[in-house]
Design a protein that fits this description.
6-stranded antiparallel sheet, 5-stranded antiparallel sheet, alpha+beta, 10 helices
Amino acid sequence: MNLIYALAGGIGTFVVLISLAWILSRRLRIVRELSFALTLASVAAGLYVFLLISGETAGPVYQALQWMVVLLVVVVVVKIVGLYFFQVLLPTRGVRLPSLLPKVAFATAYMLVIVPTLRAAFPDLKLGALLATGAVTSLVLGLALQPILGNFFAGLVISLERPFRINDWILFGDVEARVVSITWRTTHLRTRDNDDLVVPNSEIAGEKILNYFLPHPLHMERIYVGAHYRTPPYKVKQAMTTAAGRVSAVLDKPSVSVYLHEFGESSITYELRAWIEDIAEKPRIANELRSAIWEEFRRAGITIPFPIRTLEIEPRVGHLEISKSDGPRRVKGELRPTGSLVVIEGADEGRRIELGASSMTLGRSNDCSVMLAEPLASSRHFSVSWVEGSGYELADLDSQNGTEVNGNRTSKCMLADMDRITVGDTVLVFEAHE
């Protein structure tokens, strides 16, 4: 009867203490950190109550209590040293370890402590047979738990190699998600829809992972837009660059760049490359970029064409003729004086100068028809005049640094559509209006 009371007292003590530890662990972090030590203390307290009620002062239970007390002291010391090392010493030196690595280190230390303390408490215990039985049991369990062990070791490799970290944005398969936790068995990803994707560690370790946060969190966003063939590329590039500058989330450095991507069947495809800092806002920023491009194209008169087929009908002879220079059109035997100069590089970039029938001089002087901000331009640098029956003629006005047309220095020449005029660091494009 006394044995029954002792068993009830020992088990009751253990249950009460372990329940109290579980309740406190939900509120106090230090209790969660010492959960293994508190479990040992609850077992030791239960054994002590059992011995106190039963009156035994020797025997296997008393030896087990002694072993439990020694093990508890060693475990507490190991835990305190480990907490100081992992949570105080390493963080102050700027070293951040994955959460799984300290857990594995503590578990390994506990296993190394249990065997010598068990041998000291039970000198007559045959550990050889126990270890042999444990080896066979471990083999059987290893085969049965192969998927779980594979996930465990994959999680350990991920923690050591660190291909991604907590809060990193990654591309896993076709899913973009943020890493929220890495456990001993699974990795938890938070998708853009705020759903939790749980992936076994062995699966994520065997897949190709694109980490948007390595080597740094800056990300290049690419926007592809088609424009009509009749629109000059520099005009499209200017419009797309201006549109990107209106989006606050786009970084100034690295700067925005626009490339002519390909010649399609119905349009020329352009690629806008803009740098953003927060990959989590990628859909919103891409939406703002596309909206700004559409508005800027509307202002600049740039058409985003539908897939089209162009049918060209040969005009009747004598009714309409196109000049060989593809410049101003000849209508009923006459050329109309219409064209413009567009500054695509230099201090006046984006400026449009409309040309008419009268002569126009360009330079740094206030007396010029058009004043240029180019510091290398002369006071009166060059002029553009309408020549009846031929088109527009450019003439250099004995400038100090000269005038280049399509890379060739010239004193006088006839302008053709899309000719590039260079004055110092300023580049102007001649557009012959239809």
